Amino acid sequence: MEKNIKKVPQQTAEQSKILSKPRIFFGVLFIVTSIILAFSFISYLLNWKSDQSQAGTMLDKTVKSSNIFGKIGDWLGNLFIFESLGIAAFVVAFLFFVFGMMILKKNYFKPWKTFGHSLFLICWVPIFMGAITNGQGVLSGVYGFQIMDFLNSVIGTVGLWLILLVSISLYFILEFNLNPSNVKSKLNDLNDQTLGRVKAMMPNSSENFEADEELQNEQDLSIKSEDATINKVPDFTPEIEIEPIVTPNKTSFEELPNINVTESTGSSIDLNPVSKPIDIVSPKTDHIDFKVEVAKTIDIVDESDKKSQELVDKHGLYDHKLDLANFQMPTIDLLRDYGNEEIAINREELEENKNKIVGLLKNFNVGIAEIKATVGPTVTLYEIVPEAGIRVASIKKLQDDIALNLSALGIRIIAPMPGKGTIGIEVPRKNPAMVSMRSVIGSQKFQNTDMDLPVVFGKTISNEIFMADLTKMPHLLMAGATGQGKSVGINAILTSLLYKKHPSELKFVMVDPKKVELSLYSKIERHYLAKLPDGDDAIITDTHKVINTLNSLCVEMDQRYDLLKNAFCKNIKEYNKKFTERKLNPENGHRYLPYIVLVVDEFADLIMTAGKEVEIPIARLAQLARAVGIHLIVATQRPSVNVITGMIKANFPARAAFRVISSVDSRTILDSPGADQLIGKGDMLYFNGNEIMRLQCAFVDTPEVEKIAEFIGEQKGYASAFMLPEYSSEETTSTVGAFDPNEKDVLFEDAARIIVSTQQGSTSMLQRQLKLGYNRAGRIMDQLEASGIVGGFNGAKAREVQISDLNSLEQFLEELRK
Q1: Per residue in 171-212, pLDDT tens?
Q2: How far is CA 267 from CA 83, 258, 263, in A?
Q3: Strands 454-460, 692-697: pairing kind
């Protein structure tokens, strides 16, 4: 083991040597090149006339060069000095030297600063030399002469020199910060330093001598010397001669102070002189006791925190799973294995579709630079890169032509694809692969997730398992025509939640107007379902009970917000953490709050029968309930604007769209077309507020759901379902005594006879029969309801008539007249 450890630094040293060889080579190469350039330039300037005449005779052996580096030196000098930069070519040689030192990691220069100065000099020096020499000689080079001649012809000689002087002035001002205030401060600092040195060299100051004597008395040190004496001068005048102080020279070790030398285990030597160090700065002060104390960190523990910590130490953290401690989560064996679900790539089909797409686009003068195919479970995504100058709109218009040419069910064009410089064409596969619920539930991605409410939908086009957190959505709106996989999608969502959350952490409120879709989950009522205290069935199918349940959820939401306010928490996660740590007292009404998921299978039927009475609590829950752990999953067959209103749609940022009938419905649910081009059978589009993703929803069959419900239902559960708070409707049926006959309308009795005779409590019928406006007919209907002749409002249905015949009505009216 020790041998292996010792080999590691040897290997790294050898690797560093191998890596350093190219660096040394190129560094030395750049430095040598700079030296060659510099000496070639110097030699060229000394003999530039003869060297210039020899510039084109490099291969002629009869011609001899006077340059120190021969004809190569002539060529370099002619190229850099005469034909380009003049004497500024030396800056190029200097830059080669700088780059060489940088490669060798010798940080003698600041790279960017050096490069900036060099670039300025390369641009300025040739023009300056051209202005001085007026283009004569080689000092300015062709570059300097041409620029100088152009500027001279445009702005004249005075303008040329003005530009040169202003540019060099700005250069020095900006580089060295030469503004008047800085120059003055630097001169003042220089004067102060000079005066300080002069004063230090004048030892005959009486104040200095007195300070020195006091310091010497404090330290009990005396300096004795036979060769030097100190004369004390009371006043400093120019006429008095000053004798210099001569410092005694100690040449023997006996005269030096004693030094204690101690060797420690780390081979370090401590030099401790016997004599005390001389404090030359501090003046003589009286002896004062000076104590230094470091303030201690005071951790103030709140009394409630202390008590909660004691409870945790005594009883441990609160375990919300303790009531059902032996509860077992559903096993993967309950889900059906549909065999091999790997995607089989049919290269003939891919090649055929590729050729058809390329050929069709070519017929419409749309060139393609690149094409790539990604095979998914249901569709194949062809990503094309159009040639330069091709408009994206011209490809979008060819959607129907591509579908016709490929003989496909539906083609969806994504132009452009988000985050990519391509245009996507989604083509359904001839033999789509199935995505089973077992494959996605058993994946490591789902098993190891740390999401609060993980929902696994299925797989993407790239065959990746797609998951989302319901707490982050925070509500989901689903739409799709009948038979396109919408109910299977709801079952997939519920199944993924049942496989991940304990009954104490999650409760469902299920609304099923169709009465058959969610009835499978009635077996888990005592584990996962929530209902009203007076509710017989936890899965709600009656419209009246739906209204009360939604209003009860609003009451639950308000109660939870009060608990969060009293606990000083912002969301349910913080609240439950505090409650688990026993920081909240159950005697004050605090309790562990499970997540509540409201599932509505057919929302359109509720809107048609109850209207505003359903829309208002749904919108209120969608707006406020996410922070207290109440989340909504609403599904509908037809996402029309009168079903999914603007108030509801604004609070459902996450949408899942299965195949719909028309592009209008697709725009209603997704705000963009595409859902009408899906192929059905679980093919869906998911929109999370940023981008639209195409997914193949995982398939879970009805027998699989029954097995899961039976497995959970057979285990020990709670005594009853989770009870929602009781909701008392504000619309209470008024008795006859509460009705004031003196305030009734003149046509009250006529309206009552019409209602009883027809047995139809309709406001519109009163308008027609009595020729009234809507407001007056509505007031009469309210009076009939208050008197007990008709029942309460029942959505789109007519009110129930409480009196069966006209004789009973006349008796009733006679009593009212008394």
Answers
A1: 777 776 666 666 566 666 666 666 555 555 554 444 444 444
A2: 66, 21, 6
A3: antiparallel
